[in-house]
């Protein structure tokens, strides 16, 4: 036990303490009237599990030095749950406010009422409860002038835990009050710890549940996309495969017509009339162009189907070497309709600055989901307006997304996705990876996209996902994963 007090003689304590009644002894004697020995004074209460404190801090607030000394002497051998008591001393309400502010883990305050003012102690109570919002510390009022603070009104109007007259506190009663208060404080700490653990467990459960729901949605989306891609792929392959033969046949027919024209320059009237009605010269010139366009269109469809298949690998559970750029391109293709201009917003430009990357070992479907979430958020932000680019000094008149990839430290890949949107405040930036946090209107977002993306990058890939943003400076996400 630590204390600033020294032992005081019986004469000094006799001068301060009075009898509680005719049969009681001084505060330093047991309630049965006998002198207190060390064995009778020591209080070891092996009740509940130890609280999360090393020592029990007790703040003694009184303008009388003898009260401090006598209290220390009465409690010097006292322990609770195998932990000692340590004492802080304040001789005024002002000192008490300072000490409780600097020692918020104080367990108990033995508080006098009348000090520098008649209600100095009550002001301390108000300060602790209303300004510091400390509702854990136990407060026991000890007054030698009960008329200055009537018990009934004090108990009713002030958040204290006990009210005692100094004249009624024998030594054993003081010990009993202290032990009871420390037990109450320890129980409050345990309840708070349990509440914190339950809150963390609930948050984790909610996040896990949300991730499972989102994973199921993405898996269903992957299956649907794969099915659609398969259904599109079959007729596309049929068309694409037959285009070659059709074009060959068409070239043969055109060659035959040219041969007829060479050998029969003056056809009969019926043939001439038909040729004029179909505008044969234009048809012979335009038909090859139509086949070129059809070939280009079917190749585009095949590319789309390939990208859909790539994106639909959301349920693949294996880590495998993949082309990061292919995943980004697939995601951009899925979002292409949101990048195009319409009557509500202009076209969103995409600047690609791809580095020379090797194949990266990753969960391809999960990483595609990260690309989808970040790019979708960037598009949503750009629909709200643009600002000066925060990452460089460039200024873009059009809403723009910049995607940059590079190798860092030989064994890591950085994927930077930046937009020149309006940016985020510092308070928003601190919460963007929290589950269920969203700045979108009700019904427009779940608040799970970035939380799940963070989990995929950090937990599944042992990488880093960071974000930098400021109001009017745009936003940049950086995905950092090992090769």
List segments where confidence is low: pLDDT < 50 over at least 5 consecutive residues: 1-26, 28-51
**Can you identify the CATH class of the largest domain?**
Alpha Beta
Structural class call reads alpha/beta
Query: What is the first-to-last residue Cα distance?
Result: 57 Å
Largest sheet: 6 strands, mixed
Radius of gyration: 41 Å
Averaged pLDDT: 79
SSE topology string = HHEHEEHEHEHEHHHEHHEEHEEHHEE
Query: Helical stretch count?
Result: 14
Shape: rod-shaped
- Share of helix among residues? 40-55%
Q: What do we call the CATH homologous superfamily of the largest domain? A: Response regulator
Number of domains: 2
Strand content: 5-15%
Biggest sheet: strand arrangement: 2-3-1-4-5-6
How does this structure look, described?
By secondary structure, the protein is an alpha/beta fold. The chain has 2 domains: 10-193, Response regulator (Rossmann fold), CATH 3.40.50; 316-483, Heat Shock Protein 90. Helix content is 49%, strand content 15%. The protein has helices spanning 10-16, 38-41, 65-75, 93-102, 120-131, 151-157, 171-263, 269-277, 280-311, 324-334, 336-339, 364-382, 426-429, 449-460, and strands at residues 56-61, 79-80, 83-90, 108-111, 138-143, 162-165, 320-322, 349-353, 360-362, 400-408, 412-419, 464-469, 475-482. The strands form 3 sheets. Strands 2-3-1-4-5-6 form a 6-stranded mixed β-sheet, with helices on both faces. A 5-stranded mixed β-sheet has the order 8-10-11-13-12. Helix 10 crosses helix 12 and helix 12 packs antiparallel against helix 14 (449-460). The longest helix is centred in the middle third of the chain and has 93 residues, at 171-263. The chain starts with 9 loop residues before the first helix and ends with a strand. Mean pLDDT is 79; it is low at 1-26 and 28-51.
């Amino acid at each position: 036990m630590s204390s600033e007090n020294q032992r005081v003689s019986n004469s000094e304590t006799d001068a301060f303490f009075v009898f509680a009644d005719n049969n009681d002894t001084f505060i330093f004697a047991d309630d049965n009237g006998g002198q207190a020995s060390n064995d009778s004074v020591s209080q070891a209460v092996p009740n509940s599990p130890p609280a999360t404190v090393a020592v029990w801090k007790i703040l003694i607030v009184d303008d009388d030095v003898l009260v401090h000394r006598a209290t220390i002497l009465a409690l010097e051998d006292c322990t609770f749950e195998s932990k000692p008591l340590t004492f802080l001393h304040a001789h005024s309400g002002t000192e008490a406010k300072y000490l409780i502010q600097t020692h918020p883990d104080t367990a108990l305050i033995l508080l006098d009422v009348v000090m520098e003012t008649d209600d100095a102690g009550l002001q301390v109570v108000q300060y602790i409860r209303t300004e510091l919002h400390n509702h854990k510390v136990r407060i026991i009022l000890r007054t030698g002038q009960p008329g200055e603070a009537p018990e009934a009104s004090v108990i009713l109007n002030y958040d204290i835990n006990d009210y005692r007259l100094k004249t009624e506190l024998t030594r054993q009663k003081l010990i009993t009050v202290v032990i009871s208060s420390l037990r109450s404080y320890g129980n409050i700490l345990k309840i708070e710890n349990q509440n914190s653990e339950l809150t963390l467990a609930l948050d984790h459960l909610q996040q896990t549940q949300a991730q499972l729901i989102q994973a199921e949605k993405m898996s269903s989306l992957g299956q649907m996309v794969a099915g659609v891609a398969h259904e599109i792929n079959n007729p596309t392959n049929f068309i694409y495969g037959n285009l070659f033969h059709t074009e060959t046949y068409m070239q043969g027919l055109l060659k035959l017509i040219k041969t007829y024209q060479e050998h029969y320059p003056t056809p009969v009237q019926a043939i001439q009339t038909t040729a004029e009605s179909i505008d044969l010269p234009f048809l012979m010139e335009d038909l090859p162009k139509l086949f070129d366009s059809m070939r280009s269109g079917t190749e585009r469809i095949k590319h789309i189907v390939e990208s859909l298949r790539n994106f639909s690998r959301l349920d693949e559970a294996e880590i495998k070497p993949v082309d990061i750029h292919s995943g980004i391109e697939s995601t951009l293709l899925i979002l292409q309709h949101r990048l195009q201009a319409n009557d509500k917003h202009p076209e969103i430009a995409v600047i690609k600055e791809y580095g020379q990357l090797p194949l990266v070992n990753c969960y391809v479907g999960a990483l595609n989901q990260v690309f989808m979430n970040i790019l979708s958020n960037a598009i949503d932000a750009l629909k709200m307006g643009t600002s000066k680019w925060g990452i460089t000094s460039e200024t873009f008149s059009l809403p723009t997304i910049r995607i940059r990839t590079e190798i860092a430290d030989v064994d890591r890949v950085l994927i930077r996705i930046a937009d020149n949107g309006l940016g985020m405040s510092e308070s928003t930036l601190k919460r963007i990876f929290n589950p269920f946090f969203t700045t979108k209107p009700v019904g427009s977002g779940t608040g799970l996209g970035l939380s799940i993306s963070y989990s995929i990058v950090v937990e599944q890939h042992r990488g880093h996902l960071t974000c930098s943003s400021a109001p009017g400076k745009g936003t940049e996400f950086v995905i950092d994963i090992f090769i």
